[in-house]
Amino acid sequence: DTRHNILLYLEGVNKTFDGFKAIDDFNLYIKEGELRCIIGPNGAGKTTMMDIITGKTRPDSGQVWLGSRLNLLTMTEAQIANAGVGRKFQKPTVIGCLSVWHNLELAMAGPRSVWATFRAKLTGEQKDKLASILTLIQLHDHANIAAGNLSHGQKQWLEIGMLLMQNPKLLLVDEPVAGMTHQEMDRTAELLIGLAGKHSVVVVEHDMDFVRSIDSQVTVMHQGHVLAEGTMSKIQQHPQVIDVYLGG
Ligand code: ADP
């Protein structure tokens, strides 16, 4: 079975907007626990591809599966999220006036009212889980700080932590290091590498130094299609990639 160990499976996916082919016979296979970077120039179709995975956009044709059982094209956005697909957008959406801890607590509860969440006491197990994620995102010393007072990088990590509270199988991460310092970028690479194994992680990123530091398999998108796939050192030598992207 060629789909053995594949968590996310996209095959022959097409999407046209007003006659313009944004996604063109696109294939992507992400293994269980794999960390994959996706790069490509503006307009390559990266956002549309993520929107198709999360159910925000429906393709015109093709296959999109989570594992061998879940046909994502038959599911709503909410169902896809509940099935274990978490997405981190570029702009953080943490609640600034709440503490780091309370942001994580809210994220664990999912879409419930704030009051219902804080009225219910956490079980010991839930507290342990929250504490371990706090350590993972390196905010254990900041649990009681209002999220609004965190640095830009810390807010991004908190948001990744909030996604982790939902036990996602697949994490889609959009430009995680935009606006970060070099030190924050290094920590983010460490964090994402640490998540692989337990979760499949797909990172869309423009920063080449960051992608190089992650050192995972890289998919290069161009005009809605896969132009090249391989390690950064391999695709850097791909003439077409140099033409359309790295050399441009
Ligand atoms: P990327 O994220 O790689 O920059 P996008 O997926 O945002 O690329 O866009 C791919 C192409 O599809 C672009 O040319 C964009 O203008 C077009 N596009 C994306 N969404 C829409 C839409 N809702 N309506 C019309 N065109 C769209």
Notes on the protein architecture:
The chain has 248 residues and is α/β, with parallel strands linked by helices. It has a single domain (6-246), classed as P-loop containing nucleotide triphosphate hydrolases (Rossmann fold, 3-Layer(aba) Sandwich), CATH 3.40.50. It is 36% helix and 26% strand. It is built from ten helices and ten strands. Helix 3 runs parallel beside helix 6 and helix 7 (182-195) packs parallel to helix 8. Bound molecules: adenosine-5'-diphosphate (ADP). Adenosine-5'-diphosphate binds at residues 17-18, 22, 40, 42-48. InterPro entries: ABC_AA/LPS_Transport, ABC_transporter-like_ATP-bd, ABC_transptr_urea_ATP-bd_UrtD, BCA_ABC_TP_C, P-loop_NTPase.
Uncertain ranges: none
Q: Mean pLDDT, nearest integer?
A: 92
- Our count of domains comes out at 1
N- to C-terminal separation?
40 Å
CATH topology: Rossmann fold
Instruction: Give the percentage of residues in beta strands.
Output: 25-35%
Q: What Rg do the Cα atoms give?
A: 18 Å
List SSEs in N-to-C order. EEEHEEHEHHHHEHEHEEHH
Cofactors, ions, other ligands: adenosine-5'-diphosphate
User: In DSSP terms, counting alpha (H) and pi (I) runs of 4 or more, how many helices?
Assistant: 10
